[in-house]
Amino acid sequence: MAIYNYLTKNSEGKRKEGEIRADSLDTAIQKLSSNGQMVISLKEVDDTFDFLGPFIDEIQLSIEKAKNRIPLSNIVFFTRQLATMFSAGLTLERAIQSLGAEEKHRKFKRILGTVSDNIRKGLNLSESLSRHPGVFNTLFVAMVKAGEVSGNLNEILEELSSYLENLDDTRRKVKSAMNYPIFMILFLIGMLMVMLLVIIPKFSQVYAQLGAGLPAATRQMIDFSTWFGNNVGFLTFIIFTISTIIWLISKTQRGGFALDSFMLKLPVFGNLTEQSILNKFCKTFGILIGAGVPVLETTALLRKVVDNKVYERAIDDASDLIRDGYNISTALRRTEVFPSILLQLASTGEDTGELDDLLDRAADYYQKQVDALVDRMTTLIEPLLILLVGAVIALMVVLTYLPVFHLGSALQSGL
Question: Which CATH homologous superfamily contains domain 163-415?
Fold first, then answer.
């Protein structure tokens, strides 16, 4: 199935652009025309080596985020306080100005000042926030815009702050589960580097001066230490090159899909990643549907939220099916990616008219799954990693000091 970039215009003259998946150019035109849109341009995307555009966009967004790195907790507090002040009757300009004056984070304080100035100049809140994509993402801006259109901005801001709190909590738990294993692995690598580059060469010099015969295991370790010391620069270059190539491949559609598929299949960590994605998907879907955002616009936003190309492709396929007339649960089921629990809740929600509420319950379910996995990983992985680090270091120490156990014979042979 090919991907096409399209530009269309409706009967009111409003233009819309995006991507659509279809088997052929004619099928893509039929899908777009069936919605009463006039196709202005339609171009097939060659995604085989399509990494330059996304790569540049990624770099620009990364630079923007690095320049304006704001803790998520600050954004959560700002959103909740803005909702409270706006519902109390304060204007957006005055509320944001007051919050900016009390803000301790200097970069965020400057950004809030800019947002307040833009509102004073006549821009609405969503337009003002959209000028800072490194701080307020597409979902945040879309939710605010939905609140402006529906007239219940204060309620949307409350829901948005609760959503961001949930997201921050899930992200913190996932990081806490992964930080310890990563730290232990890095610690083990650091210890091995010190042993191979510093400690073992010093011992090998001592043994060489004694002229003693060394055990075979110790000789092999010393030979490996010598080889590693002579090639550490080349190995570092190889690792850097491979990492760069993998990163570039991840920016293509096919390469990113393959890497994300591999990540989801990893033992324990893959399940944790998938549960976290499903929690984010359900929570975001429920909030957007509850806010009255059209389904196809909701799926377009969900694609940017999941941050995984396997689920991005599934959402694209589901969007095409919804556009063709299928209901949400059937479209999600046909992708063969989403789990049965989510599909059952979505189907029940469509039948009862409470889709947003049931999606929120699904999000709570996956949140509990994340919590359980984090607890399980903490219980099992931490002692295993401690044993691994201890075993490797003990092996290195034993091999290093093995000749000392025969020190008498070593000194005698050296005389």
Answer: Type II secretion system (T2SS), domain F (1.20.81.30)
